[in-house]
Design brief:
Shape: elongated
Radius of gyration: 19 Å
Order of helices and strands: HHHHH
Number of domains: 1
Strand content: under 5%
Number of helices: 5
Structural class: mainly alpha
Largest sheet: none
Oligomer: single chain
Number of strands: 0
Helix content: over 70%
Protein backbone atom coordinates (compact mmCIF):
# COMPACT_ATOMS: atom_id res chain seq x y z
CA UNK A 1 0.00 0.00 0.00
CA UNK A 2 3.00 2.28 0.50
CA UNK A 3 3.42 2.69 -3.24
CA UNK A 4 -0.19 3.72 -3.76
CA UNK A 5 -0.08 7.11 -2.07
CA UNK A 6 1.64 8.99 -4.90
CA UNK A 7 -0.49 7.62 -7.77
CA UNK A 8 -3.69 7.99 -5.76
CA UNK A 9 -2.69 11.54 -4.80
CA UNK A 10 -2.17 12.38 -8.46
CA UNK A 11 -5.49 10.74 -9.38
CA UNK A 12 -7.18 12.77 -6.63
CA UNK A 13 -5.64 15.96 -7.99
CA UNK A 14 -6.67 15.10 -11.54
CA UNK A 15 -10.25 14.19 -10.63
CA UNK A 16 -10.97 17.21 -8.43
CA UNK A 17 -9.21 19.43 -10.97
CA UNK A 18 -11.40 18.04 -13.75
CA UNK A 19 -14.66 18.67 -11.92
CA UNK A 20 -13.53 22.12 -10.76
CA UNK A 21 -12.67 22.96 -14.37
CA UNK A 22 -16.03 21.66 -15.53
CA UNK A 23 -17.97 23.85 -13.09
CA UNK A 24 -15.64 26.81 -13.69
CA UNK A 25 -16.18 26.69 -17.46
CA UNK A 26 -19.93 27.03 -16.88
CA UNK A 27 -19.29 30.07 -14.67
CA UNK A 28 -16.99 32.00 -16.95
CA UNK A 29 -18.27 31.26 -20.41
CA UNK A 30 -21.06 28.80 -21.10
CA UNK A 31 -24.00 30.37 -19.27
CA UNK A 32 -22.81 33.92 -19.93
CA UNK A 33 -22.72 33.03 -23.61
CA UNK A 34 -26.23 31.63 -23.40
CA UNK A 35 -27.38 34.76 -21.54
CA UNK A 36 -26.09 36.85 -24.45
CA UNK A 37 -28.05 34.96 -27.10
CA UNK A 38 -31.70 34.71 -28.07
CA UNK A 39 -33.42 33.14 -25.03
CA UNK A 40 -35.16 30.58 -27.26
CA UNK A 41 -31.74 29.43 -28.41
CA UNK A 42 -30.43 29.49 -24.82
CA UNK A 43 -33.25 27.27 -23.58
CA UNK A 44 -32.80 24.77 -26.41
CA UNK A 45 -29.02 24.76 -26.04
CA UNK A 46 -29.16 24.25 -22.26
CA UNK A 47 -31.65 21.43 -22.71
CA UNK A 48 -29.28 19.76 -25.17
CA UNK A 49 -26.22 20.24 -22.94
CA UNK A 50 -28.03 18.92 -19.88
CA UNK A 51 -29.16 15.86 -21.82
CA UNK A 52 -25.64 15.18 -23.11
CA UNK A 53 -23.71 15.59 -19.85
CA UNK A 54 -24.72 12.19 -18.51
CA UNK A 55 -21.96 10.26 -20.21
CA UNK A 56 -18.92 8.09 -19.55
CA UNK A 57 -16.50 11.00 -19.73
CA UNK A 58 -18.33 13.07 -17.09
CA UNK A 59 -19.09 10.11 -14.81
CA UNK A 60 -15.60 9.55 -13.33
CA UNK A 61 -14.96 13.20 -12.54
CA UNK A 62 -18.34 13.84 -10.95
CA UNK A 63 -19.20 10.54 -9.28
CA UNK A 64 -15.80 8.98 -8.53
CA UNK A 65 -13.98 12.07 -7.20
CA UNK A 66 -15.23 11.73 -3.60
CA UNK A 67 -14.42 8.01 -3.63
CA UNK A 68 -10.92 8.63 -4.97
CA UNK A 69 -10.33 11.36 -2.39
CA UNK A 70 -11.63 9.10 0.39
CA UNK A 71 -9.45 6.16 -0.66
CA UNK A 72 -6.45 8.48 -0.84
CA UNK A 73 -7.26 9.77 2.66
CA UNK A 74 -7.35 6.17 3.90
CA UNK A 75 -4.01 5.34 2.29
CA UNK A 76 -2.44 8.51 3.73
CA UNK A 77 -3.78 7.63 7.19
CA UNK A 78 -2.47 4.08 6.85
CA UNK A 79 0.97 5.57 6.13
CA UNK A 80 0.64 7.84 9.19
CA UNK A 81 0.41 10.97 7.08
CA UNK A 82 -2.21 12.42 9.41
CA UNK A 83 -2.28 15.93 8.03
CA UNK A 84 -2.52 14.69 4.46
CA UNK A 85 -5.19 12.17 5.39
CA UNK A 86 -7.21 14.91 7.08
CA UNK A 87 -6.92 17.22 4.05
CA UNK A 88 -7.88 14.52 1.54
CA UNK A 89 -10.77 13.55 3.82
CA UNK A 90 -11.95 17.15 4.16
CA UNK A 91 -11.79 17.56 0.39
CA UNK A 92 -13.98 14.46 -0.02
CA UNK A 93 -16.52 15.66 2.55
CA UNK A 94 -16.64 19.23 1.22
CA UNK A 95 -17.08 17.94 -2.32
CA UNK A 96 -19.93 15.63 -1.33
CA UNK A 97 -21.76 18.36 0.59
CA UNK A 98 -20.92 21.46 -1.44
CA UNK A 99 -20.79 20.15 -4.99
CA UNK A 100 -22.31 16.68 -5.31
CA UNK A 101 -25.35 17.22 -3.09
CA UNK A 102 -25.98 20.75 -4.41
CA UNK A 103 -25.91 19.37 -7.94
CA UNK A 104 -28.29 16.55 -7.01
CA UNK A 105 -30.63 18.69 -4.91
CA UNK A 106 -30.69 21.93 -6.91
CA UNK A 107 -29.06 21.98 -10.33
CA UNK A 108 -30.35 18.62 -11.57
CA UNK A 109 -33.98 19.31 -10.59
CA UNK A 110 -33.72 22.71 -12.28
CA UNK A 111 -32.29 21.03 -15.39
CA UNK A 112 -35.04 18.42 -15.38
CA UNK A 113 -37.71 21.12 -15.05
CA UNK A 114 -36.15 23.04 -17.96
CA UNK A 115 -36.11 19.83 -20.02
CA UNK A 116 -39.90 19.70 -19.74
CA UNK A 117 -40.31 23.23 -21.10
CA UNK A 118 -41.42 23.60 -24.69
CA UNK A 119 -39.35 26.40 -26.15
CA UNK A 120 -41.77 29.30 -26.63
CA UNK A 121 -42.11 30.92 -30.01
CA UNK A 122 -42.61 34.28 -28.30
CA UNK A 123 -39.24 35.81 -27.38
CA UNK A 124 -40.70 37.62 -24.36
CA UNK A 125 -41.99 34.39 -22.84
CA UNK A 126 -38.68 32.66 -23.60
CA UNK A 127 -36.74 35.53 -22.01
CA UNK A 128 -38.80 35.26 -18.81
CA UNK A 129 -38.23 31.49 -18.59
CA UNK A 130 -34.53 31.79 -19.36
CA UNK A 131 -33.81 34.66 -16.97
CA UNK A 132 -35.63 32.91 -14.13
CA UNK A 133 -33.70 29.69 -14.76
CA UNK A 134 -30.29 31.19 -15.52
CA UNK A 135 -30.03 33.55 -12.55
CA UNK A 136 -30.82 30.91 -9.95
CA UNK A 137 -28.85 28.16 -11.68
CA UNK A 138 -25.75 30.35 -11.83
CA UNK A 139 -25.83 31.16 -8.10
CA UNK A 140 -25.77 27.47 -7.25
CA UNK A 141 -23.16 26.74 -9.90
CA UNK A 142 -20.86 29.46 -8.52
CA UNK A 143 -21.21 27.89 -5.06
CA UNK A 144 -20.28 24.41 -6.27
CA UNK A 145 -17.42 25.91 -8.27
CA UNK A 146 -16.04 27.67 -5.17
CA UNK A 147 -16.39 24.50 -3.11
CA UNK A 148 -14.64 22.45 -5.80
CA UNK A 149 -11.87 25.06 -5.93
CA UNK A 150 -11.42 24.79 -2.16
CA UNK A 151 -11.28 21.00 -2.55
CA UNK A 152 -8.62 21.40 -5.22
CA UNK A 153 -6.56 23.55 -2.85
CA UNK A 154 -7.02 21.03 -0.02
CA UNK A 155 -5.87 18.26 -2.36
CA UNK A 156 -2.79 20.25 -3.35
CA UNK A 157 -1.98 20.90 0.30
CA UNK A 158 -2.46 17.22 1.11
CA UNK A 159 0.09 16.33 -1.55
CA UNK A 160 2.49 18.99 -0.29
CA UNK A 161 2.29 18.08 3.39
CA UNK A 162 3.76 14.55 3.21
CA UNK A 163 7.06 16.24 2.40
CA UNK A 164 6.80 18.36 5.53
CA UNK A 165 5.76 15.45 7.77
CA UNK A 166 8.74 13.33 6.81
CA UNK A 167 11.25 16.14 7.43
Amino acid sequence: MARLLLPMSMLSLLSIGAIFGFFYAWVCSTVWGLDATDPRTAIAAMQAMNASVRNGVFFPAFFLTPIILGVTAYIAAWQLRKRSAMLFGLAAIFYIVGAFLITAAVNVPMNEALAEVAVPIDIGSAREIWLDYSASWQVWNVLRTIVSGVCLILTGLAIYFPNLESA
